[in-house]
Specification:
Layout (H helix, E strand, L loop, with lengths): L10 E3 L16 E3 L4 E3 L7 H9 L2 E3 L5 E2 L1 H6 L8 H11 L23 H6 L9 E5 L5 H13 L5 E6 L2 H17 L7 E5 L2 H13 L4 E7 L17 H10 L5 E6 L2 H14 L2 E3 L26 H8 L5 E7 L3
Parallel strand pairs: 6-7, 6-9, 7-8, 9-10
Antiparallel strand pairs: 1-4, 2-3, 4-5, 10-12, 11-12
Helix pairs in contact: 7-8
Length: 330
């Protein structure tokens, strides 16, 4: 669709050849600011405009809407079905890959400190044998859904799976996919839930609510936003406050799994936990030691399930840096 042009009079122009025209021969002239500055629109001399006009007859009206004659005759406006509006809608529906967790709208708590009813509504069994598996930055929830599927098939460990995601639209997408999955297998236990949340804001309240019914026994932080710039490192998910709130709210023995395809990201999270104190590094004291694909002993609880990111990195020959820690209160 051509840009809107405000013209003095309506005209119809369909060139029979693509011979470049001199500016003064291209009607009409565009008036700006009520006639004070009379100048040609810069697109009037564009060769691409001439090519478009050669392909289709367009009519520019005095109200500034560019219509085809057939639509003008039928009384239907092309602006209602314009392709730019459709593309804008699609673009707006696409979730952002990176967000600023320190932005004002992300600092609003999602949970009420004195209302833990959301937990009872989310899970069928409030106190599973193995506690709650908390996935921080769950994205579209594929990782937790696969873990749940594996454990349901094996009928072994019993968890409530809780995924939190700072991007509300992504968390809602994960919950919608979950509802479709549960509808296709009604016999599956209702033990998985996704919710939008900035974990650095609501972590203390979240752990307090869970502890009223059960306990958080496993925490996974898979491929968090690396935020490479030095000035943006304060936006990373694992901060001193995060580690402090985690240690206070979790019970002894809670296992934390960290993995990323960026070594610096894993090192930074690992050092933050170690410097905070109260966390045992299950890999060892040597910071140059990690769990790799050939040594998954620290990640046996994943049942071989990989995130989409991990699968992509491994297929392209990259490395995934893994480590795990345990909360210690003795």
């Amino acid at each position: 669709m051509l840009p809107q042009v405000v013209a003095k009079t309506a005209f119809s122009f369909a060139p029979t050849s693509l011979v470049p025209l001199r500016r003064r021969a291209f009607p009409p002239r565009v008036t700006h600011n009520g006639g004070k500055h009379d100048a040609f629109h810069p697109l009037q001399s564009s060769w691409s405009v001439l090519q478009l006009l050669h392909q289709k007859d367009f009519t520019t009206t005095s109200v500034g809407a560019t219509e085809s004659p057939s639509k003008l005759n039928s009384g239907t406006s092309s602006s209602a079905n314009s392709s730019p509006a459709t593309s804008d809608k699609k673009r707006n529906n696409k979730p952002r890959q990176h967000v600023n967790p320190l932005a004002r709208h992300h600092q609003v708590p999602r949970l009420s400190s004195d209302d833990p009813r959301w937990y009872k509504e989310a899970f069928e069994n409030e106190s599973p044998a193995n506690g709650v598996w908390l996935d921080v930055g769950c994205c579209k929830g594929g990782f937790l859904r696969e873990i749940k599927k594996k454990m349901d098939e094996e009928e072994g460990e019993e968890f409530n799976f809780l995924g939190v995601e700072i991007r509300a639209e992504v968390a809602e997408m994960a919950q919608d996919r979950l509802k479709r999955m549960m509808a296709s297998s009604p016999q599956s236990p209702k033990n998985i839930h996704f919710t939008p949340m900035n974990i650095n804001v609501d972590l203390r309240t979240l752990l307090s609510h869970v502890n009223q019914f059960s306990r958080v026994s496993v925490i996974t932080i898979n491929f968090p936003d690396p935020l490479f710039k030095v000035k943006h490192k304060k936006r990373r998910v694992v901060t001193n406050k995060f580690c402090s709130d985690l240690w206070e709210g979790c019970k002894d023995g809670t296992t934390i799994y960290l993995q990323s395809d960026i070594q610096d990201v894993v090192d930074d999270m690992r050092l933050t936990f170690r410097e905070q104190g109260g966390f045992e590094d299950l890999v060892g004291d040597n910071l140059e030691t990690y769990f790799f694909e050939g040594s998954r002993s620290g990640f046996d609880q994943f049942k071989g399930v990989k995130t989409e990111r991990e699968t992509s990195v491994m297929n392209n020959g990259g490395n995934v840096w893994k480590c795990s820690l345990r909360v210690t209160k003795k």
